Amino acid sequence: EPAPGGRLLAELLHFRLDPGHAWIGATAAALELPPQTRLVGVMRADETQLPAGAGALREGDGLLFVAPESE
User: Fold this and answer.
1) How many CB atoms lie under 10 A from the CB of residue 66?
2) With 0-12 CB in 10 A as exposed, 13-18 as middle and 19+ as buried, what is 26?
3) DSSP 53
4) What is the pLDDT of residue 2?
5) From CA 58, how far away is CA 21, in angstroms rounded?
6) Are the C-beta atoms of 38 and 66 separated by less than 8 Å?
7) Could you give the CA distance from residue 24 to residue 71 in angstroms, rounded to a whole number?
8) Which residues contact 52 (CB under 8 A, 6 or more apart)?
9) pLDDT tier at 71 (50, 70, 90 boundaries)?
10) Residue 48 in contact with residue 64, Cβ under 8 Å?
């Protein structure tokens, strides 16, 4: 829902997949994320890829999310 003035307040979040994380081997489409949270990039081997082109997530991948601003 837009904030007063018509702006949508959001945060950019970074998360790294540590060894053994449940998302390793999953595709971006298979992730169950909170409402209005979107995976927007996968950082791998000094490159940032769009989630659809990244294939299966790997240990050490950095995931970039856009989410509603926390209160």
Assistant:
1) 15
2) middle
3) G
4) 57
5) 9
6) yes
7) 30
8) 28, 29
9) low
10) yes
pLDDT tens for 23-70 read 999 999 999 999 999 999 999 988 999 998 889 999 999 999 999 887
Task: With beta carbons less than 8 A apart as the criterion, state whether 38 and 63 touch.
Answer: no
Would you call 18 helix, strand, or coil by DSSP?
Answer: coil
Other Cβ atoms within 10 Å of 6 Cβ, number: 6
Distances (CA, A) of 34 to 14, 19, 37, 45, 67: 15, 23, 6, 27, 8
Side by side, which strands form the sheet with 62-68? 10-16, 62-68, 38-44, 47-49
Cβ(33)–Cβ(51) below 8 Å: no
Amino acid identity of residue 1, one-letter, is: E
Reading the block at residue 2, the tokens are 């837009």
pLDDT of residue 65: 96
